[in-house]
Design brief:
There is one protein chain. By secondary structure, the protein is of the alpha+beta class. It has helices at residues 38-47, 50-64, 96-110, 191-194, 196-214, 231-244, 278-293, and strands at 70-74, 77-81, 112-118, 130-133, 139-143, 148-155, 158-164, 174-178, 221-225, 264-268. It has a three-stranded antiparallel β-sheet with strand order 4-3-8. A three-stranded antiparallel β-sheet has the order 5-6-7, with no helix packed on it. Strand 1 (70-74) and strand 2 (77-81) form a beta hairpin. Helix 2 (50-64) crosses helix 3 and helix 2 packs parallel to helix 7. The protein is elongated. The relative contact order is 0.13.
């Protein structure tokens, strides 16, 4: 009897985030990082951006707050039934509202929300007795010959294939909630990825404003020499400016610079808030972030 052909598994296509890089060299910022990770989405897109945080919080609270009711329908009659215990307390560490809040938050931040069902015997067709929420970056879909084969748990030593998926029904004790992703059939697209440029603008605008306030709301100035300076004079002037006119400690102070004479003049090398339409820019980016997540 000839041996069966070796199993060949489908491979998820590689996904590369669109990169905005002025001049082709910029690598800083949230939107400009190639291949956003969950840590970047959670830190720069959620924890450091108040608009994204509030939008995710509002949507998650709206889903988790309403009471859940269970009805048994027979014809035109409908009779209220007691909710299963798992809907009251899905696990020893969370209430149903806490569980839903975390699931919706992960869904909006990462585009995925992995939910694990614990059944009495580990079967697919049994009502769960407990539900657990996993962090999105720790659960990995494993494609098979046809469709999805299993879900794996990402560990420091590698990926452990832990939750099998029924190839016919698609049932599994791991439910991988995900948004639509046009480039990846297995993982969802984070709404924060679509709002990444707006998040960058909002974060950078707030940082720029904070730095401007630290400098006493004064814009950057350049001291331009009309003639070449001796090295000793250049070093002395540079050191004096760094020590006496730079940093947060020197805000609202003054510096006496000797030896400039008529050979130097000052030029503004940055825009003022009015020049940059700062308020309009930050309001526009905030609106973009909010509507991407589903807020208002």
């Amino acid at each position: 009897v000839p041996s069966p052909p070796p199993e060949r598994r489908a491979v998820s296509p590689p996904v590369s985030a669109y990169v905005y890089s002025p001049g082709g060299t910029t690598t800083t910022g949230f939107f400009r990082k190639q291949g956003l990770t969950f840590d970047q989405l959670a830190t720069e897109g959620y924890a450091k951006n108040v608009i994204a945080y509030v939008a995710v919080d509002e949507v998650a609270k709206a889903v988790a707050s309403p009471p859940w009711l269970n009805y048994e329908t027979s014809g035109l009659e409908r009779k209220e039934q007691t909710l299963p215990p798992v809907f009251m307390r899905p696990n020893p560490y969370q209430s149903w509202a806490d569980f839903l809040y975390g699931a919706v938050s992960y869904y909006l931040i990462a585009g995925t929300a992995p939910l694990e069902a614990i059944t009495p015997t580990g079967g697919y067709n049994e009502p769960p007795v407990q539900l657990y929420l996993h962090r999105p970056h720790t659960i990995v879909p494993i494609p098979g010959r046809v469709g999805l084969a299993a879900y794996g748990l990402k560990t420091p030593s590698g990926i452990i294939e832990k939750w099998k998926v029924d190839p016919i029904t698609g049932q599994s004790n791991m439910r991988f909630l995900k948004t639509f992703h046009p480039l990846d059939p297995w993982c969802g697209l984070s709404p924060l990825t679509a709002a990444a440029l707006g998040i960058d603008v909002h974060n950078d605008a707030n940082l720029w404003n904070a730095n401007l306030l630290r400098r006493g709301a004064s814009t950057d100035l350049a001291i331009v020499a009309e003639k070449p300076m001796p090295d000793s004079s250049y070093v002395r002037l540079r050191d004096q400016l760094e020590q006496e006119a730079s940093g947060a400690r020197n805000v609202k102070g003054f510096t006496l610079i000797d030896g400039l004479g008529d050979k130097f003049h000052f030029e503004k090398i940055s825009f003022s808030p009015r020049d940059m339409s700062w308020i309009e820019a930050i309001n526009t980016s905030a609106h973009e972030v909010a509507i991407a997540v589903g807020g208002s």
